[in-house]
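README: folding subset

This subset contains proteins for which both the sequence and a predicted structure token string are available. Records are stored as plain text. Below is the entry for Beta-galactosidase (672 residues), shown exactly as it appears on disk.
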Amino acid sequence: MTAPRTPRIPYGGDYNPEQWPQQVWDDDHRLFTQARIDTLTVGVFTWSLTQPAPDTYDFTHLDRILDRAAAENRRVCLATGTAALPPWLAKQYPEVNRTDFEGRRHRYGRRHSFCPSSPAYREHATAIAARLAERYADHPALLAWHINNEYGGACYCDLCAAAFRERLRATYGTLDALNDAWWTTFWSHRYTDWDQIEPPNALTEHWRGPDHTAFQGITLDYFRFTTDALLGCFLAEKEVIRAQDPDTPVTTNFMGMFRPLDYHRWAPHLDFASWDSYPPLDAPPTWPALAHDLMRGLKDGAPFWLMEQTPSTTACRDVNPLRRPGELRLATFQAIAHGADAALYFQMRASRGACEKYHGAVIGHAGRDDTRVFREVAELGRELEALGDATLGARTPARTALLFDWDSWWALEISDGPSRLVKYQEVVHAYYRAAREAGADVDVVPVTADLTTYDVVLAPVLHMVKGDLAGRLEAVAARGGTVLTTFLSGRVDEHDRAFLTDVPGPFGPLMGVRVDEWDSRPTDVVRPVRLGELTCEARLVFEIVLPRGAEAVGTYGADFYAGTPAVTRHACGQGEGWYVATALDQPGVHWVVRRILARHDLLGPYADHPELETATRVSPDGTSLLFLLNHTPEPAHLTAHTTATDLLTGKRVEEGEPLTLDPLGTAILRTR
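--- output ---
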């Protein structure tokens, strides 16, 4: 099953009319029509309303909400509401409340506070989901099911401890196998009974927080357990929905590059991927682009839904800057360029009270239609309405892949060496950014993905090597492709045990190097690296490389390893393996990646305009759409690389003619 079929990009977002009287509903729908809003996400936090007591269900409000939506010709993404417990459930069954990392059992409060191993939570969550499905499966407004909301968080209670042990039994079979995987002969940790195993937390294996653990193996397995425990809650709700409604697509909203949960383990169970985009402060445009491409990669390149973004500002940070005029439009078209088939907001009307009352909204507290934000939302709605179905179902024809691996992320950042200053996301983003700013389309895919269609595979800080990955990467090079990996890659197996061979472990034959030593330094220690005519800066980790068939492309310029290779290239089959032994600055990463892309003729037609983002989608009928996004406050003056028609303006441009994008402007060029 795939995403819902719609005649245009669904446009709207999170709507909570249960907070408001009928008069406000009337105003809302009038404004929705004005803004071309046709899709509403409802019921996300209505559990205490629809089930006010253990044996009492009241769907009066939801009936009115869905009936009104249908009467207004709007569709609904209906949530099960199970992300926030009703107070009576926490009071009657205290075990549904989580136990935190420090071992404290929490009392009722906040949201996302449930224990995923609690039978009482599962029983009541599936019961409310089943009743919702029974009641609304055939409702004319129903477009998709939205289970829970932004899953996350871990629990360390006795129920989770017991479930963790059962998972370990199923995974390892015997204590001997578990002891070997976790290397428990270290520090006299050898287990002789399953009941001796405790969840790794502040009271057991950790100190100074979740990333400091004495035994990486047990902590990795608890990360995996938490992912699967929460996935089990999702699947339990999906199962009861499917029993009543076999046809309506089911999803839950992810959070992009969210470290606690391995979304690749969830992906097969979603009918379509969706996510909430709230980029960090001052993030470059390639940061949300990377998250978009990661979400697209969850379902083998199928389009995803942008389930949430703010129309103006957020309310969850110490400082919450406002989106400037034009930035919302640009961010929305960026999501569409990278595979979004829906553009939805949080929130439709600003809440009057509680912690999100100052979060951005399409409609503010005063309910006006003449605010700048509402006018921008309405104008964008008109553009999307005019665009129709031109982009729906379109896919990205990328020949460059970037491997993204939660296990490597976890293993790298809980390791006690060589450096805790290396952040997985930052290194991965640096290589992604270089490829995107050079004009290459990039698929962000798991390490299990089929790599046979890619000419270039970027695998930065791939700390953990699992299964047959090394052999599949060698096959990419053997047929003429190029594979890049970096420092701290190829270090450990799936249990976080060091390979008993030279670094970079299984990647050694492909890279043609041996790493004997590595120097780790604080961020203020800089080593120059010479790359052709460019001298760039390197930081954090400096691996000392001995070529074993590879040639030096870049060399260190300081310390006792001055003159030794910092970047190497190794001929392997008909292709190449590139190894980057240090954390290059962005100009250095750009230099390396552009040479790799140039070898395969993958530099984009506007590669000399790094502030201009390009992305390609190909519609089901073969129509090619090139998105041009100007991320600067100045006009972008280009020369059209081909004859095309801009779908947003209807203007035709001939190859070789001047092509100008407005500040923060977008063009969607239909080239055939």
